[in-house]
Design brief:
Layout: H1 11-14, H2 24-30, E1 33-46, E2 54-56, E3 62-69, E4 74-81, E5 84-90, E6 98-99, E7 104-109, E8 114-119, H3 123-182, H4 187-305, H5 307-383
Antiparallel strand pairs: 1-2, 1-3, 1-8, 3-4, 4-5, 6-7, 7-8
């Protein structure tokens, strides 16, 4: 039977050659343990200093197996990486295997004073390992219950053996007297001798059973002491994990606060990105306008090259303008003179119209007189 301790001794500590630890599984098979389930996984152990971070126990995926010890009716999880035993954990009914993610699970071993973690290639393998852990845990619980029943039965048998021993002694004494009588011969004496031999054999067998039961009782007491120690360690571990849970909860709250702050910062960053995008668009517009202005400036530069010609033309146009202004002044003077003459002519025309009207009125009067004179002449010609 392979002994289980808080830490499996290394090959150098045992004085074994390299590879001795790697042969631990084979030795366990030879000594009564048989593998009942095997898988491959990455092995981790909790950091003993921080009790928070995981420390890889294997550089790659290694074989992890459940072993059953038929002599002690116990179950263990064993894993070997090269020359190092990285898992040697005896399954107890108080253990619990917890899935922390889709491909990772862990359990605490109070005897080894550590927490083991396994990373599997797939969720199906993790599920199979967890189911086997629960099955082995139930079997360990059943074995413990049977051991307790066996202890009670052994205790009862011991008490009965204690009560039967005096009667056996008395029977031996009686049979001893019968043996003395049997020396004289007779069927009754032979029968009593036969019964005496049977009682002696039963007494010897009872003594052997008592020794066996005492040995088993001592073994069960030691097992009970180990279980009590494991229970105390488990209680201490539970308190430790409660404190660790509280610390993790506080850390989780702090992380949530930081996440909220980061989300606010992300919102501010998004707003800044929008502003930057707007500024980028505005910058592109300004660059486009700058290009347009540069084109206009180039056109103006080209036009600036013909400014001297335009200046000379402007001077010529100015001279022409001055001459035109002078002519315009002369023309304005002539216009004023003409306007004066027109006004005078208008006045004259008005006077002439008045005189003409007066003349026409006199003429109309003369005509009327001539018409009357004609009519008079006509009347005179008719009369004659």
């Amino acid at each position: 039977m392979c002994e289980v301790g808080t830490r499996p001794p290394l090959a150098a500590e045992r004085g074994e050659p390299p590879g001795g630890a790697a042969a631990a599984a084979e030795r366990c098979r030879d000594m009564g343990e048989q593998p009942i389930f095997t898988t491959r996984a990455h092995v981790f152990q909790i950091d003993p200093s921080t009790k928070k971070n995981w420390v890889p126990a294997s550089k790659q995926a290694v074989t992890v197996s459940y072993f059953y010890d038929s002599t002690r009716n116990s179950y263990r999880i064993i894993s070997v990486d090269g020359a190092k035993v990285i898992i040697n954990s005896t399954i107890t009914p108080n253990m619990t295997f917890t899935k922390t993610s889709q491909k990772f699970g862990q359990w605490a071993d109070s005897r080894a004073n550590t927490v083991f973690g396994l990373g599997f290639p797939s969720e199906q393998q993790l599920t199979k390992f967890a189911e086997k852990f629960q099955e082995v845990k139930e079997a360990a619980k059943l074995a413990r219950d049977r051991s307790q029943e066996k202890i009670e039965t052994s205790s009862n048998h011991s008490q009965e053996s204690g009560r039967e021993t005096p009667s056996s002694t008395r029977a031996s004494s009686v049979n001893g007297t019968d043996d003395e009588k049997a020396s004289h011969g007779g069927p009754a004496e032979a029968h009593l001798k036969s019964e005496n031999d049977k009682l002696k054999f039963a007494l010897a067998q009872s003594s052997s059973n008592v020794k066996k039961w005492e040995t088993e009782l001592q073994s069960l007491r030691e097992s009970n002491a180990r279980l009590s120690t494991a229970l105390q360690e488990s209680a201490a571990s539970i308190e430790h994990w409660k404190k660790q849970f509280s610390a993790c909860k506080e850390e989780n709250d702090q992380l949530r606060g930081k996440i909220e702050e980061l989300e606010e910062q992300c919102n501010e960053i998004n707003k800044e990105k929008e502003r930057n995008a707007q500024l980028s668009r505005r910058l592109q517009e300004l660059e486009t306008e700058l290009q347009d202005k540069e084109l206009e400036l180039e056109e103006l530069r080209k036009q600036g090259e013909i400014i001297p010609e335009l200046m000379s033309e402007c001077e010529s146009v100015s001279e022409q303008l001055q001459a035109a202004e002078k002519k315009n002044k002369d023309l304005e003077e002539k216009v004023r003179t003409l306007r004066t003459e027109v006004e005078e002519n208008k006045h004259r025309q008005t006077n002439l119209k008045t005189e003409l009207k007066n003349f026409l009125d006199v003429l109309d009067g003369k005509i009327d007189e001539l018409h009357d004179f004609r009519q008079g002449l006509s009347k005179l010609g008719v009369d004659n």
